[in-house]
Write a sequence for this structure.
């Protein structure tokens, strides 16, 4: 049957060529489109993640929902001690965040001022690498303030300039100080650059009475793919009033937004595939219906319905495989190339900054598993398309078929 | 070999269009016969051939191939029967267009799982008998009508069936090719000892066969 | 003669029913899916545009020349009252909204967030953009230092109706000033900027709090149906910055453009594949009957009549598919217009993109008319190739041709 199928394919050229081309184009398009979609989503999430959010963050329960100083972590050292024994954790650092007012001589602005451990922070996030002016914080930077570019612009201060801080300490008492602008950063994340400022914890803790306290502890991992298992491990080591959350929860809106985008992407693609499915089915049907008499004769001389199914299955298998064998490496190569050399759309980040897009690059995702299921889907669609033609041809009685006009 | 007992067949039974296509047929075809069902158009000869070949069902009666009753078989069993016990030659569209002459002849043997060496030997033997051995690699569309029918006959006889049923095999042939075909089929009947039953109204067929079974209006006529 | 050709075409179009039905189903399913997708995407875009128009800029907005670069009190519009009065006398102006806005910090006992306090007049806003329709929870009221919060801001601050919050900012004299407010209502505009940061209070109250003149504004927003009005306003108030909706929302303009491009590409691809489908069926159908055509030519039927018959056959099939597709598409779009596409599973994600959780589709006559023209064109073009095959053949050759 396989040889016969091969010969039929070469003989009935128009159907074979149409099916081949449509399968080739749809496979290629699917692989490239999904690679582009997944790549841009991954990139958006990773870029947003890199900026500041940890892969895992440890909070006191209710801090995120209710907030306030009662829900600060009060024993950072013991938690960090536990974390130091957990495999897979690259590094961790505690952050003390507070909202307050920063003022230059004439302008005041609300800001989120955070006490950080500069050395650990440099390993965790993009803060150090996004320095554009002045210098990054050090362990002994004292009252140096490291501020987002848009906030600096608003306050109208330059390096060395004074900035007053007014807020409340961890015991709810009034806290105020004068800082010096030592460095400016620009992450590209609009929200962040317009509102965030950082101070070294060794200095900030004395102002805020926050020694051994933290709003949360941020954790970086060696391998982001192990986030769920490591999170489970962390949770098992912590006290009951402490919770640990992965970036998937912390960045839930963005994760969901990417999922919605994917859903819409697939909906749009599905239209394309529905149409192709029908065309392949129609060409298959036409081909089969023009061979009714031939099949009738074969049924008369002893070819069973099962063998006819097998024959038509082989025909579709050969055509699909040939097209996919061509399209898959090509699509994979395109995905691979653009995963290493992302497409750059100038001005994209500026345009979409409100949506958290911080890079003009749009890399593709190269994932063999994804490409495999893309290909499997095309196979399945192609095989589904011959169900009707097969049932049509087998619905004839042999003698009916030989007289078919 | 083939025995029909009180066979009746209707088309559109219990319908205003009802046709009593086969009326109380009792017939016996012996092994090795070279016979033909003859009669005017619409007399039921093709219908009778079809029911003998398990291609169509009957409304009453029984049909036996040797000792096996073939009227009670289901679709799958009928197909198996045709594959293993019978050979067919039709008026037209006999051959698989994408297969060569050799491959067409070998088709049933391959379906039945004969070993390749046996197939090749038998193909050559039968093709030589039917004088188409010089066209073994040709495709059907390069052959004349007569040559195509000879390939169909070769295919039918190659797997050594018990009986060959040929429905108007000469209908699309000119007189010369009709004569050639009939001569060759007679030769096969004698040499291969295969039973051949025709349904035809062609004089070349009538003049070639040993036994004529007349039909009219769905019934056998003495 | 034409009646006979029509009858021949009609009968032949549906001669091979299974084949024809397949093509009809293909056209119908593709078309209804395409219409639904187009309707949803257009609905999404229009929803975002409508939200932005109603909740923020209107078709035209007037700002101080320096305001958008540096959003300080010093960069407000000084003679807002006069401008407003002038505008209200303009017959092309449907509604005007005067707003005063500053950035600051909203805080409860436990949470804080950056926000924009916006002083508005409720009556003006109602006329401007049916403001009350944005209400998600509570009531539209500024009674007793009442405030209305954007839904995302309310979530960040973890406030409910009746909660208290403090808003702090720098007032006109440069001092840090705070005002205590009570949450009376939570609104959802699906305009990202508003929902994440807006805190609405009575405009008069804001003037008092900031110490600014009541004749000032940071934004004067205008609703109009007159496309030419923008140029008039730009000339008249050349000392201010006058921007159209699209100039203020280049992202939405880009989204609209991208939707048009996307819909056009989808449309073209679908129609192309439909064309291939019809071509396949018609080609085989004609080849199957080439002897019949040869005989008709032989007995005296002119090629033109034959061509008309074949064109009509293709049209019948195409239009049958279109009719079924249009009906299916209409019902699908009607359902999506009334019930909408519920994406509440992705509520947070949708909100982060400034989109509602239920997306209502849009429907336009052009969806159906464009598809109609495309299907007619596809159907007619699809038979050109098969027609060429029989055009140059002598009838006797056609009769002898292999099927």
């Amino acid at each position: 049957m396989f040889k016969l199928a091969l010969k039929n394919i070469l003989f009935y050229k128009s159907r074979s060529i149409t099916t081949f081309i449509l399968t080739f184009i749809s496979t290629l398009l699917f692989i490239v489109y999904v690679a582009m979609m997944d790549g841009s989503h991954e990139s958006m999430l990773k870029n947003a993640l890199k900026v500041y959010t940890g892969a895992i963050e440890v909070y006191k329960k209710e801090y995120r929902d209710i907030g306030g100083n009662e829900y600060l972590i009060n024993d950072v050292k013991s938690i960090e001690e536990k974390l130091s024994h957990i495999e897979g954790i690259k590094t961790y650092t505690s952050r003390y965040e507070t909202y307050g007012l920063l003022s230059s001589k004439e302008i005041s602005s609300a800001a989120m001022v955070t006490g950080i451990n500069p050395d650990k922070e440099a390993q965790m996030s993009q803060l150090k690498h996004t320095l554009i002016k002045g210098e990054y914080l050090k362990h002994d930077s004292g009252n140096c303030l490291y501020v987002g570019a848009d906030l600096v612009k608003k306050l109208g201060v330059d390096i060395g300039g004074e900035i007053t801080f007014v807020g409340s300490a961890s015991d709810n008492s009034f806290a105020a100080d004068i800082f010096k602008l030592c460095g400016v950063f620009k992450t590209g994340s609009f929200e962040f650059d317009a509102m965030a400022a950082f101070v070294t914890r060794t200095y900030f803790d004395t102002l805020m009475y926050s020694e051994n306290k933290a709003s949360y502890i941020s954790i970086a991992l060696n391998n982001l793919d192990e986030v769920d298992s490591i999170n489970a491990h962390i949770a098992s080591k912590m006290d009951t009033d402490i919770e640990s959350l992965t970036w998937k929860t912390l960045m839930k809106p963005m994760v969901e937004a990417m999922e919605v985008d994917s859903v819409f992407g697939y909906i749009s693609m599905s239209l394309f595939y529905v149409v192709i499915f029908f065309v392949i089915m129609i060409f298959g049907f036409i081909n089969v219906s023009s061979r009714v008499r031939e099949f009738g004769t074969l049924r008369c001389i002893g070819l069973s319905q099962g063998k006819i199914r097998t024959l038509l299955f082989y025909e579709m298998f050969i055509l699909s495989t040939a097209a996919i064998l061509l399209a898959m490496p090509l699509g994979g190569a395109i995905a691979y190339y653009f995963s290493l050399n992302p497409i750059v759309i100038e001005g994209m980040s500026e345009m979409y900054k409100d949506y958290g897009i911080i890079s003009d690059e749009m890399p593709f995702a190269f994932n063999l598993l994804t490409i495999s299921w893309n290909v499997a889907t095309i196979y399945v669609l192609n095989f589904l398309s011959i169900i009707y033609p097969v049932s049509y041809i087998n619905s004839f009685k042999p003698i009916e078929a030989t007289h078919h006009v | 070999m083939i025995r029909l007992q009180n066979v009746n067949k209707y088309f559109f039974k219990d319908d205003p269009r009802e046709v009593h296509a086969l009326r109380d047929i009792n017939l016996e075809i012996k092994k090795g016969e070279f016979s033909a069902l003859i009669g005017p158009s619409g007399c039921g000869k093709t219908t009778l051939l079809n029911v003998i070949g398990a291609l169509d069902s009957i409304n009453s009666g029984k049909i036996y191939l040797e000792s096996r009753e073939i009227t009670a078989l289901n679709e799958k069993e009928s197909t198996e029967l045709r594959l293993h016990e019978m050979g067919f030659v039709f008026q037209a569209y006999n051959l698989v267009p994408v297969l060569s002459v050799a491959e067409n002849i070998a088709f049933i043997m391959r379906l039945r799982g004969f070993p390749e060496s046996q197939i090749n030997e038998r193909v050559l033997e039968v093709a030589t008998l039917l004088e188409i051995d010089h066209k073994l690699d040709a495709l059907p569309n390069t052959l004349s009508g007569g040559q195509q029918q000879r390939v169909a006959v070769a295919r039918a006889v190659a797997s050594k069936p018990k009986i060959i049923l040929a429905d108007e095999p000469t209908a699309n042939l000119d007189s010369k090719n009709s004569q050639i075909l009939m001569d060759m089929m007679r030769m096969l009947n004698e040499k291969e000892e295969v039973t051949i039953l025709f349904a035809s109204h062609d004089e070349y067929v009538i003049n070639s066969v040993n036994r004529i079974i007349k039909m009219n209006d769905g019934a056998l006529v003495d | 003669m034409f009646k006979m050709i029509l009858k021949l075409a009609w009968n032949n179009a549906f001669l091979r029913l299974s084949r024809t039905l397949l093509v009809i189903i293909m056209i119908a399913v593709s078309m209804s899916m395409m219409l639904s997708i187009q309707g949803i995407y257009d609905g999404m875009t229009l929803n975002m545009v409508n939200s932005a128009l109603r909740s923020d800029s209107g078709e035209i907005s007037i700002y101080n020349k320096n305001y958008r670069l540096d959003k300080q009190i010093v960069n407000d519009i000084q003679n807002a009252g006069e401008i407003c009065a002038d505008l209200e006398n303009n017959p092309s102006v449907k509604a005007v909204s005067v707003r005063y806005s500053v950035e600051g910090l909203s805080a409860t006992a436990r949470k804080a967030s950056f926000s924009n306090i916006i002083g508005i007049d409720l009556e003006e806003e109602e006329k401007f953009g049916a403001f009350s329709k944005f209400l998600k929870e509570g009531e539209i009221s500024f009674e007793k230092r009442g405030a209305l919060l954007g839904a995302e801001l309310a979530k960040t601050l973890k406030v409910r109706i009746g909660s208290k919050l403090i808003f702090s900012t720098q007032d006109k004299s440069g001092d840090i000033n705070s005002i205590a407010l009570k949450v009376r209502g939570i609104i959802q505009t699906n305009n990202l900027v508003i929902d994440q940061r807006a805190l609405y209070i009575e405009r008069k109250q804001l003037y008092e709090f900031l110490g600014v003149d009541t004749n000032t504004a940071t934004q004067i927003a205008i609703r109009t149906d007159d496309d030419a009005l923008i140029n008039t306003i730009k000339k008249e108030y050349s000392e201010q910055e006058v921007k159209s909706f699209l100039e203020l929302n280049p992202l939405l303009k880009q989204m609209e453009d991208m939707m048009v491009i996307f819909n056009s590409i989808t449309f073209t691809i679908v129609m192309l594949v439909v064309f291939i489908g019809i071509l396949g069926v018609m080609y085989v159908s004609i080849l199957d009957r080439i002897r019949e055509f040869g005989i008709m030519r032989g007995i005296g039927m002119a090629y033109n009549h034959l061509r008309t018959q074949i064109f009509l056959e293709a049209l019948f099939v195409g239009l049958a598919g279109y009719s079924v597709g249009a009906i299916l598409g209409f019902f699908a779009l009607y359902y999506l217009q009334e019930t909408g596409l519920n994406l509440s599973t992705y509520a947070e994600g949708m909100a982060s993109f400034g989109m509602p959780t239920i997306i209502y589709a849009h429907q336009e006559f052009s969806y159906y008319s464009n598809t109609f023209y495309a299907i007619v064109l596809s159907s007619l073009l699809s038979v050109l190739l098969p027609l060429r095959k029989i055009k140059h053949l002598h009838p006797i050759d056609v009769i002898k041709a292999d099927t």
